[in-house]
Amino acid sequence: MDRKERVERLKKYDAEYKQYLMAKYFSDKTIYGANVYDVKMNIEGQTMCAGRFLPFQSFVNPAEFYELIKKDSSPPTAIMEDNKPGIVNQEP
Fold it and tell me: Which domain of life is it from (predicted)?
């Protein structure tokens, strides 16, 4: 291979790697395929995204993120204390 072919090959690898990193770390999906952002809205032509977790949190420590999601998504249980309806408590 001559120098020109090596440069073209390196540019190709660089572009593919950049695309891989952008898809992995800057997409709106977690490592498990769920949406990172809970709400997406359009304000003055710009898309704003909001979520409970940091976009990269699932990639940093997947096991801890899974436990956090599991704990966060458990349904709240209604507790009737002293016959007071409507008190909602979430189990730890």
Answer: Eukaryota
Residue 54 lies in a domain: yes
Residues 6+ apart with CB under 8 A from 55: 25, 26, 28, 36, 37
pLDDT number for residue 31: 64
In a domain, 90, yes or no: no
| 41 within 8 A of 48, measured Cβ to Cβ | yes
Q: How many CB atoms lie within 10 A of CB 12?
A: 10
Our count of domains for the chain comes to 1
Residue ranges with strand state E in 1-92: 39-43, 46-50, 77-78, 88-89
Q: Which residues of the chain have pLDDT under 50?
A: 76-92
26's CB contacts (< 8 A; 6+ apart) are 55
Domain range for 30 is 3-73
pLDDT at 83: 44
